[in-house]
């Protein structure tokens, strides 16, 4: 049976969706997009149809090659294994470990603790400080790690999965008004990556579901 075009379920502002959008853009994978509004109508991620796709009720989800994958890093690793060019995990096992360490630091240590559903539980009044504290503590560790791994990118000079995690997390930091002056390496790498086409076309300000006032 012929599988159709891959379908990405995405929300413009979702940093995890942005990771996958960058991977698809870098690897030149033609796909369709279905947007899931995480806010509207109490959140479209809670609909029966979407829960059937991802019981975690989160984006991104990618339907590809006849399977459905949730979890952005699992999606990126699948794309890497099935469509290896350009490479997003270095060949050298030590560099590969660094890429995974940085990706996990962001994907397990920062983003989930400032995700929408957590902030809702923290409450309107405290959520800005909460998010700022989470990101500051994660970025302090990351800045230190990058001192020994970074070149032009998070690990050496080649764009990797770690960079796909970094840029969307910096966007979250900016949205939560985190002062980035204490993180010169993070800021430098972010600036370099944002000049690349794959990061620009996948940017939250340029998605089909980006509201008019946030388009750029
Ligand atoms: N570990 C997951 C996290 C996915 C996640 O947190 N997605 C957020 C958007 S970035 C979401 O769908 N949140 C919906 C909610 O909190 O209700 C991944 O890497 O894909």
UniProtKB/TrEMBL annotation:
Molecular function GO terms recorded: glutathione transferase activity; maleylacetoacetate isomerase activity
Recorded name of the encoding gene: GSTZ1
GO BP annotation list: glutathione metabolic process; L-phenylalanine catabolic process; L-tyrosine catabolic process
Protein's pathway: Amino-acid degradation; L-phenylalanine degradation; acetoacetate and fumarate from L-phenylalanine: step 5/6
Identification of the protein by name: Maleylacetoacetate isomerase
Keywords assigned: Cytoplasm, Isomerase, Phenylalanine catabolism, Transferase, Tyrosine catabolism
GO CC list: mitochondrion
Source species of the chain: Prolemur simus (Greater bamboo lemur)
Cofactor dependence: glutathione
Keyword Isomerase (UniProt): yes
Positions of the GST N-terminal domain: 4-87
Catalytic activity: 4-maleylacetoacetate = 4-fumarylacetoacetate; RX + glutathione = an S-substituted glutathione + a halide anion + H(+)
Principal location listed in the UniProt entry: cytoplasm
Residue ranges annotated for the GST C-terminal domain, each copy included: 92-212
Assigned EC number: 2.5.1.18, 5.2.1.2
Subcellular location, record wording: Cytoplasm
Family: Belongs to the GST superfamily. Zeta family.
